[in-house]
Design a protein that fits this description.
- It is a single chain.
- This protein is mainly alpha-helical.
- It has one domain.
- The chain contains 13 helices and ten strands.
- The strands form five sheets. The protein has a two-stranded antiparallel sheet with strand order 1-2. Strands 3-6 form a two-stranded antiparallel ribbon. The chain has a two-stranded antiparallel ribbon with strand order 4-5.
- A hairpin with a 6-residue loop joins strand 1 and strand 2.
């Protein structure tokens, strides 16, 4: 039996091996991916022929798990004021179960009866066996318009509807110029416009760092080699094509830190806002400086943690003392959106907040236990990693769309500042709305919130 299947129920292991064999020619224990054995034209033709089926399979999974209708919260907009925030619980429940009845069950009962909502389970990559970076259509179209560079893959498309993703382009707020508000002028920063937009606002060192963050470098699926996933040979991608305007556009790939391929979980792009207050970086890697993060990403996000592939495709090795330091200096001045209802200590001002928001704050720091990890004085995070042990609620070893459901393990505490701007939620984007996150943690932490308390908690998080 392959090493990673040990401890998994036999039937699940057989199913997993069958799926891996049918979708990927590599044995489950393979660490390195070999070069293609077919000409690029044949691979491209095969991928294009399978694309519709791949996308339909993922659409079926998403529709089984979620209500993806467009239902914004009346009058609540993201920080740029151009996109409404989606409301309501979107995760679908198993038949004959309510959220209250589910929360009243024991962990063992939920696991034995298979009642954990599928939307709470790890979310597969749209093409798990291949993986790689997937950009939303808005990002693809804007880069094509500004730079005539194509980020559109021929084998797969982005899988979530636009209304459950972040505002695009997102606003940019600077710690060095809070009086200016959004300095993006409603535009997406690219190599074509960054100097004009930022000239006279940032320092020469920050400007050079910004240039590097906007310079395309080869990446696993976007490069010159025959195993790329774009039709034309490509210069690559930039740091800020996932972290659009230093925020996020919902782009995703797979964690570089896990093998085999079937076990690699989907990794949603996180915001770089407030990175100056973070002491660990990366959902799983616990990197201890933004310099480490910036340098390490050239081998992880860009090349799936595979230095062999990076060398062949054209790895970028930024100089630590000069280039990496300048890139870090630029990232370190990106601020959170303004919060008019919070005081300097991260608490609501009673003169500005509603009764529901104040009630939500009491729940956040009390019964809901949110404030134990999301500490107000440290930008609503604790700079630690925690294991929620969600696998208590389901049988590990199940496979969905070629992904094996294994424990998530420790994940860092993400900041909640500006959280309304950052859907979907959790490290893999498995939760579409803040209401979904409340139901998730209500179950996982066993805090038994009432519906009124849940609504108040969402109202409070919208103020952050």
């Amino acid at each position: 039996m392959p090493r990673f299947l040990r401890g998994i129920p036999p039937m699940a292991g057989l199913l997993l091996c069958g799926l891996a064999a049918s979708s990927d020619p590599l044995p489950p224990d393979t660490t390195y991916r070999p070069l293609p054995t077919l000409p690029f034209s044949a691979v491209k033709a095969n991928d294009e022929a399978q694309k519709r089926q791949v996308m339909q399979r993922q659409a079926n999974l998403l529709n089984q798990r979620y209500d993806l209708s467009d239902r914004p919260i009346p009058g609540v907009m993201m920080s740029g004021g151009r996109k409404p925030v989606q409301g309501g619980v979107r995760v679908k429940l198993p038949e004959s179960v309510t959220w209250d009845s589910l929360a009243a069950m024991s962990v063992d009962e939920i696991r034995q009866r298979g009642l954990l909502p599928a939307g709470f389970m790890p979310l597969p990559h749209v093409k798990q066996a291949t993986g790689g970076q997937i950009f939303p259509t808005q990002q693809i179209d804007e880069i094509q318009r500004q730079e005539a560079r194509d980020l559109r893959r021929f084998d797969v498309d982005f899988d979530l509807p636009d209304h459950v993703t972040p505002e695009f382009p997102p606003p940019i707020f600077l710690t060095t110029h809070p009086e200016l508000g959004d300095v993006s002028r409603g535009q997406l920063l690219t190599i074509k416009n960054f100097y004009e937009l930022m000239n006279g606002i940032i320092t020469p060192v920050q400007m050079e760092g910004l240039r590097l963050l906007l310079t395309p470098f080869p990446q696993e699926e976007f490069n010159q080699t025959e195993d790329r996933k774009v039709a034309a040979q490509s210069l690559g991608v930039t740091c800020l094509e996932c972290h659009s305007n230093f925020h996020t556009n919902g782009a995703f790939h797979q964690t570089p830190d896990i093998r085999p391929q079937a076990a690699r979980f989907r990794l949603d792009t996180t915001s770089l806002r407030g990175i100056f207050n973070q002491q660990i970086h990366g959902s799983k890697r616990s990197l201890r400086s933004v310099e480490d993060f910036t340098e390490f990403e050239q081998r992880t996000a860009y090349f799936n943690g595979d230095h062999v592939s990076a060398t062949r495709k054209g790895v970028n090795l930024p100089d630590r003392t000069n280039q990496v330091a300048m890139m870090a200096q630029m990232q370190n001045i990106i601020d959170f959106p303004p919060v008019p209802k919070l005081d300097p200590f991260g608490r609501l001002d009673p003169a500005k907040a509603t009764e529901q928001e104040l009630a939500g704050e009491r729940i956040f720091f009390g019964k809901g236990r949110c404030g134990e990890c999301h500490i107000a004085q440290t930008s609503f995070m604790d700079n630690n990693m925690h294991d929620l042990k969600l696998e208590r609620f389901y049988r590990i070893g199940q496979t969905v769309n070629d992904m094996v459901m294994l424990p998530d393990g420790p994940i860092k505490t993400f900041t909640l500042r500006g959280i309304k701007d950052s859907p979907p939620y959790l490290h893999d984007g498995r939760l579409m709305t803040l209401a979904d996150t409340v139901e998730f943690f209500n179950l996982v932490l066993g805090v038994r919130l009432t519906q009124q308390e849940k609504d108040a908690l969402v109202a409070y998080m919208l103020t952050l």
